[in-house]
Amino acid sequence: MAGKTTERRLRRNLKRDYQYYIMALPAVVVMMMFNYLPMTGLVVVFKNYNARDGIYNSPWVGFQNFEFFFKSPMSAIRATTNTLILNSMFIIVGTVVAITLALFLNEVKNKIFKGAAQSIVFLPYFLSWVVIGSILYALLSDKGSINTLLLSLGLDKVKWYASPQYWRFILLCTNLWKFAGYSSVIYLAAIANIDTTYYEAATVDGATRARQIFAITIPFLKRTIIILTLMNVGRILYGDMQQIMAQTRNNPILIPTTDIIDTLVYRSIMTSRDFAFASAINLYQSIVGLLIVLLANFLVKRYDEDYRLF
User: Fold this and answer.
1) Cα–Cα distance between 280 and 202 in angstroms, integer?
2) Is CATH 3.30.1330.60 what the domain over 74-307 is classified as, yes or no?
3) Would you say the C-alpha torsion 25, 31, 34, 39 has a positive or negative sign?
């Protein structure tokens, strides 16, 4: 009985909203072609791939493609730890900086200055990591601007590219410079949707602007913060290889603090040409990322069901 009711409801919805389903059809087809059909190629993870036999006819090897990653526990642990630490820093500090930037921009009343400030903070998002890496090298090389400044102050210059202990902070700074402006625009849009009557009522009650921010603005941003954080947590095991390679210049001295899963896989592919191994590690990242998202969503649901992602 319930099945027939659902079928009638579905037919009624299709008849009533068929125009919307037709409009959505091209996007659904594209998504199926480029996001779901390629997933059948994941079978290569469990095969000894060779170009002659192709993906589906190559011999099965089971979990052999995962062995290299877990047979080198020190490298695997180091890469996984660095990936988690760097992405956790990017998520936490990046969220705080983006919200702070959005709050400051929201307080600007001069429209011309506000528009110019938004453009300036948004501009680094369009720069590639290669360009940013070149700028960073100009600042941190032995004859770079920062070492020149240190020498002019009577201090010793720092060999940045031979000192791995500094690079987590350096990568955090460049990540903030590139993405904080982009993220702040999202939060700024969320702030713009807050009903102004709340601020008017708070002003009448004598609340200061700072009090309004902490009592009205930030609580209304909570849902946006949680959703964006959950989406970022899902990729916490995925590092930005372009950022690492472009900024460290693939310097082996910096590996202790900058080696992530993606760069470890890249080096392995360059030496062994084993693409099935790369696919296996990518599947490992995806599965663990999914489990982390499910766990985070469960914790959010326990905290407040209205803020869960699904």
Assistant:
1) 55
2) no
3) negative
Q: Indicate the residue type of 123.
A: L
Residues across the chain: 310
* Encoded tokens for 265: 């896989």
Q: Name the residue among 254, 73, 54 with its Cα closest to residue 167.
A: 254
Phi, psi torsion values for 47, nearest 5 degrees: -130, 160
* Delimiting residues of CATH 1.10.3720.10 domain(s) in the chain: 74-307
185 contacts: CB under 8 Å, gap ≥ 6: 102, 118, 122
17's tokens = 């909203």
pLDDT of the chain along its 310 residues, tens only?
A: 555 677 888 888 888 888 888 999 999 999 999 888 888 888 888 888 887 888 888 888 888 887 767 777 788 889 889 999 999 999 999 999 999 999 999 999 898 998 899 999 999 999 999 999 999 999 999 999 999 999 999 999 999 999 999 999 999 999 999 999 999 999 999 999 999 999 999 999 999 999 999 999 999 999 899 889 988 988 898 888 999 999 998 899 999 999 998 898 888 777 766 677 777 888 888 888 888 888 888 888 887 777 777 7
Instruction: Show Cβ contacts of residue 232 under 8 Å, excluding neighbours closer than 6 positions.
Output: 87, 90, 91
Residues 6+ apart with CB under 8 A from 284: 66, 69
In three-state secondary structure terms, 27 is helix
| SS3 label, residue 47 | strand
Which tokens go with 260?
Answer: 């992530």
The 3-class SS string of 214-257 reads: HHHHHHHHHHHHHHHHHHHHCCCCCCCHHHHHHHHCCCHHHHHH
In a 10 Å sphere around its CB, with 0-12 CB exposed, 13-18 middle and 19+ buried, how is residue 209 labelled? exposed
